[in-house]
Write a structure and sequence with these properties.
The protein has helices spanning about 1-15, 55-65, 120-145, 150-180, 190-200, 210-220, 220-235, 255-265, 270-285, 285-290, 300-310, 365-375, 380-390, 395-410, 415-420, 440-450, and strands at about 20-30, 30-45, 50, 70-75, 75-85, 85, 95-100, 105-115, 315-325, 330, 335, 340-350, 355-365. Mean pLDDT is about 85; it is low at about 1-15 and about 180-185. It folds into three domains: about 1-115 and about 310-365, no CATH class; about 120-180 and about 190-310, no CATH class; about 365-450, no CATH class. The chain is about 45% helix and about 20% strand. Strands 1, 2, 3, 4, 5, 9, 11 and 12 form an eight-stranded mixed beta sheet that branches. A five-stranded antiparallel beta sheet has the order 6-7-8-13-10.
Length: about 450
């Protein structure tokens, strides 16, 4: 498995040579907000090579900004414009920035997703299908190679049973890792540790295998990797370590023979024959667009890539900066007090994975109003946010009745009794001889009294 992760990391380096960079800057402005997007293409180098976005991408983003003009500085194109409510689908996704007002202050919520897919069932189904496809190919290949050998049935049971299940589980591990990673930009090692523990518990790898595995990886030695593969198969079909390897499985020690054998098997499959025929037809019609002839190893590489290696391949980089007048009381970003911004840095993947999600919630109390009514600021942060939501749910009549109460409140001994005695005209009638009847004002009253 570590060899697979190493190969995936190498693929990541190759695929990540060129990527798009997006810097989103958001500044709330009353009930709306100003949004500024700077985007460019970046190629690997020291320093990185900066290129403009493709014209079709520029056109698509411009439409999101109502055709407002953009400008280029050092190859980086910037778009800007005012918005209210919904965020533009400039980077790809959906979101909103909403204000909730009240007489005691206001609260805001910013929530936006970027790319990805929320269709979890389809994503996991595709991974199960990839695991099953890979297991089917490996089973068919090994059974055809072993033919009537005594070990053929044990190998088939292992591949179609334990290996199929474990490929499914490791595929879900990989998807989960990508879905919950809080900081993108590097392939975190936790997945490798989890996968390693999973494989160790199921007798694929042991601590004694690590030195040989490390040597195979560090020296890029396929023969040692093949020897490890052979030991795994022998162990998994129940042959003790002190027993000789069956002659039928000797070929697994030879990476060249393994490659030739599986390539030969894959070429004979119906799926490859169909690909070959489709390529030949295209080659006859338009040789320049036909590309290279299909490679039979793609039949194995594609499901393997779907399970593990597409975690971050071809990822773009996203940075979001949200300018705020106050520190948020809830966010999954990083608050920078010196600049008054919440910052997010994420990688974006268009393949099957959960979207990148960023959010922040903050409140700004009306200090003068609260001081005038209560003698102090009693509602701020989450309490003010809940109060603003409560106030937004009042009818026009109820808002008028509550406004009259607030106008009458002043610091002093009569403040708390007046708050406790208030009831809306729409509340059930109070009965002094029974438990107090519930009131629509109860939650707002609790929030204010808690601040007093």
């Amino acid at each position: 498995m570590r060899i697979a992760l190493f190969a995936g990391a190498m693929l990541l380096l190759v695929a990540g040579c060129t990527r798009a960079r997006y810097v989103v800057e958001i500044t709330p402005d009353g009930a709306g907000f100003q949004r500024r997007l700077t985007a460019w293409k970046e190629s690997a180098g020291n320093p990185p090579k900066i290129e403009e976005l493709p014209p079709q991408e520029v056109q698509r983003i411009s439409e999101q900004y109502a055709g407002q003009s953009s400008f280029i500085l050092d190859g980086k194109r910037t778009f800007a414009g005012p918005f209210q409510g919904a965020t533009p689908q400039d980077v790809g996704g959906a979101g909103q920035l909403r204000q909730f007002e009240s007489p005691l202050g206001s609260s805001w919520i910013y929530l936006e997703r970027f790319r990805g897919s929320d269709d979890v069932e389809t994503q996991l189904s595709r991974r199960r299908e990839a695991a099953d496809r890979l297991a089917d190919l490996l089973s068919g290949w090994l059974v055809s190679e072993l033919r009537e050998q005594p070990e053929a049935e044990a190998v088939r049971r292992f591949v179609e049973g334990d290996l199929r299940r474990d490929l499914r589980n490791l595929g879900v591990y990989a998807w989960t890792h990508r879905a919950v990673t809080a900081r993108d930009g590097a392939f975190e090692l936790e997945f490798a540790w989890r996968a390693g523990q999973y494989l160790a518990e199921r007798d694929y790898l042991s601590a004694a295998d690590l030195p040989g595995l490390h040597r195979a990886m560090s020296q890029n030695d396929p023969r040692r990797a093949a020897e490890l593969l052979q030991r795994i198969v022998v162990r998994k079909i129940g042959i003790p370590a002190d027993q000789p390897v069956p002659r039928s499985l000797e070929f697994l020690r030879d990476p060249e023979r393994v490659g030739e054998s599986i390539s030969k098997y894959l070429r004979a499959t119906e799926e490859f024959q169909q690909r070959q025929a489709a390529w030949q037809r295209k080659q006859a019609e338009d040789p320049e667009s036909a590309g290279n002839a299909p490679d039979p190893m793609e039949l194995v590489g594609e499901p393997l890539g779907s399970l593990f290696f597409n975690l971050s391949l071809g990822s773009d980089q996203l940075d979001v900066r949200l300018k705020l007048p106050a520190e948020p009381f809830d966010t999954n970003g990083q608050w920078q007090g010196e600049t008054g911004t919440v910052n997010w840095s994420r990688s974006l993947v268009d393949q099957d994975t959960l979207p990148v999600l960023v959010y922040a919630a903050w409140s700004v109390p009306d200090q003068d109003v609260q001081m005038g009514h209560f003698g102090r600021v009693v509602l701020r942060d989450q309490a003010l946010a809940e109060y603003a939501l409560w106030h937004g749910g009042l009818s026009e009549q109820e808002a008028g009745e509550w406004g009259k109460l607030l106008a009458s409140l002043r610091p002093g001994p009569g403040l708390v009794p007046a708050l406790k005695a208030f009831r809306f005209s729409t509340d059930p009638p109070a009965n002094a001889q029974e438990e107090p009847a519930p009131s629509l004002a109860d939650r707002a009253r609790e929030l204010i009294l808690a601040g007093l």
